[in-house]
Amino acid sequence: MELTVNLKDKSYPIIVERNARLTLRKHYDFTGKKALVVTDEGVPDIYALEVQMQLPEAYVVTLPQGEKSKSLENYVKLQKELLEHHFSRDDVVIAVGGGVIGDLAGFVASTYKRGIHFINIPTTSLSQIDSSIGGKTAIDFENTKNIIGTFYQPELVLVDLNVLNTLEDRQLNNGLVEALKMGICLDKNLYKIFQENKQYEKLDEVILKSIDAKRQVVEKDEKEENLRKVLNFGHTIGHPLESFFEMNGLLHGEGVASGMLFMIEDKALRAEVKSILTNLGIKVTNDFDRKKIMEYLVNDKKAGHNTIDIVLVNGIENYEIKKVTFKEVENILERKI
Ligand SMILES: NC(=O)c1ccc[n+]([C@@H]2O[C@H](COP(=O)([O-])OP(=O)(O)OC[C@H]3O[C@@H](n4cnc5c(N)ncnc54)[C@H](O)[C@@H]3O)[C@@H](O)[C@H]2O)c1
User: pTM of this prediction?
Assistant: First the structure.
């Protein structure tokens, strides 16, 4: 299946199929091009190797796994690698990994010589469903997530559903929270799959529908001026929760899960979404220091001086993007989830 992201300046294909990683050359002309393949130690190394073997000249860099790899140090390391191998603007960077590798490699590609070609081969459910589409690249800096980054669209995204077979269940479910988010806000048929607890048997459909939902939002609002903010549903409180529970190793989607529940106005829907999250093995939490969460929230890059945009949900495909004061968020945090 091929989807196209149609943007004003650049359009690109997303190929969604089993074993897509093995068909790279079918979708992109590498004649005369060098490639830097970036991956991490948690991604089975065979994937990067299989990509490398299809290319005329490719170098593989394997970084440590985890959020800490989205760092200035690794940014410098990759830039040095490009320089040492005399990469020109005609050459290409290829990410083979989850959102960490995609965000970092995309940022490197966007800034080396003011931008070289970039291909993303996302290998986690989160990166296939969400982070590989839409062109947000970033690194973390001084304990602040995604604070240095660019909008830089890839030229090709290869979504290979088979690589999810090696992903741990917890990571798979972490990504499915983002699919649930898109179902709640944008696609009632996608939501229905979760409602019927069929997300595992219909995993291909879940991923495809999520990609399509995100694609449509990005096409209408590439730089997040308005509509794209809907994709932050659950993130306003989710991000601070992620920072608060960092030591416990809370994953992104796990923070977003609780964050979404706070933003659902309708009690019956809140209860239903909570039970869907239970099906996904996700524990939601009410038990945290509200003051600390507000401190993280105020420092969020999306916050204004005294206000922040939140996404409130009243029903399926029924949401509202609203500017609220920090005081109003404090009240929302008093809700029982
Ligand atoms: N750019 C965006 O629009 C966007 C959107 C959402 C999230 N993000 C970013 O994405 C990142 C999280 O991404 P993630 O959840 O993919 O985490 P991740 O990249 O850290 O991957 C999770 C773990 O899975 C391992 N892994 C990857 N593929 C595997 C496979 N096929 N088999 C076995 N193990 C595998 C990795 O080594 C890692 O340990 C965060 O940094 C977040 O900020 C970006």
Answer: 0.94
